[in-house]
Amino acid sequence: MAQEILRIKLALPYRLGSVNCYLIRTDTGYVLVDTGSSNKRKELEEALTRTGCEPGNLNLIIITHGDFDHTGNAAYIRKKFRTKIAMHSDDSPMVEHGNMFLNRKKGNIFLKLITNNLFGFRKSQRFKPDLEVTDGFDLNEYGLNAKVIHIPGHSKGSIAIITVDGELICGDLLVNSDKIDDPKINTIIDDLEAADRSVIKLQNLEADMVFPGHGKPFKMSSLLENRPS
C-alpha cells in the first residue's frame, strides 16, 4: 500500500505562528490529520484541491486533540467533503462545547478567559465526532495502514498516528522549529508526568520520521539526541 504524507502549513491568527495539517495520500483516497484554524479555511481547501482531494475520496478526518488551531475547519470539511471525523473521547467535550480548557487541569483563570474569547469556537465550528478512537485503533478500514496511539500530556485525549513505515504524526506533544531542528516536548503541557510517559511510549515504537503539529518534520533520532537521559 503506497502512502504519502503531505504537510499543509497554515498561519495562525494574530501572528501567533503556524500550525500543520497532514494530508495522507493512499491507494484508496486520502486521510486528513487536523484541519487548522478557521481563519485559513480557504487556504486549506485550496491545498486539498491541488492534491486531488475532493468530496468522495476523503476517507476520514483525524483530530489529534481538541484545540482550536487543529479543529477549526473540521465541521466544515466534514460537511463539504462528505466524510467522518475521528478523535479520542477524552477531548470530544472540547469540540462539542467550544472550550479548549474543558477537560484540562485548573490553571490561570485570566488566561482561560482571554484564550476562550480570542479563540473560542463559534457554534458553526463545534461538532460531535463520528468515530471515537482509542489506543491501538487500526485505520486500515479507511485505507490507511497505520494505527492510533493515545499520548496524553498536552491534553487528556491527545493521539498520534504511526504508519507501518514508521512515520509518526504526533499532534502537539512534540514541537520543532521551522528554521533549525530543535525537537522537544511542547512547553504547553497539561500533565507533565503523562507527557513524559507518552514520549517514552513513542520512542519505544521505533518511529523514524516525526511530523509535529508545529514546526518542520524531524528524525526521531534527533529528539533522542537532545533528550536528557
Q: What would you say this structure looks like, in words?
A:
With 229 residues, the protein is α/β, with parallel strands linked by helices. It has one domain: Ribonuclease Z/Hydroxyacylglutathione hydrolase-like (Metallo-beta-lactamase, Chain A). 26% of the residues lie in helices and 25% in strands. It has seven helices and 13 strands. It has a six-stranded mixed beta sheet. It is globular and about 40 Å long. The mean pLDDT is 91.
In short:
26% of the residues lie in helices and 25% in strands. By secondary structure, it is an alpha/beta fold.
List key phrases describing it.
Metallo-beta-lactamase, Chain A, 5-stranded mixed beta sheet, 229 residues
CATH architecture type: 4-Layer Sandwich
* Tally of helical runs: 7
Mean pLDDT across all residues, rounded? 91
**Which spans of ≥5 residues are poorly predicted at pLDDT below 50?**
none
As laid out across the biggest beta sheet, the strand order is 1-2-3-4-5-6
Globally, the shape reads: globular
- CATH fold annotation: Metallo-beta-lactamase, Chain A
Number of domains: 1
- Give the biggest sheet: 6 strands, mixed
Question: Over all CA atoms, what is the radius of gyration?
Answer: 16 Å
Beta strands, count:
13
Which band does the percent of strand residues land in?
15-25%
Helical fraction equals 25-40%
Distance between the termini: 37 Å
CATH class category name: Alpha Beta
Class by alpha and beta content = alpha/beta
Order of helices and strands: EEEHEHHEHHEEEEEEHEEH
Please identify which CATH superfamily we are dealing with. Ribonuclease Z/Hydroxyacylglutathione hydrolase-like
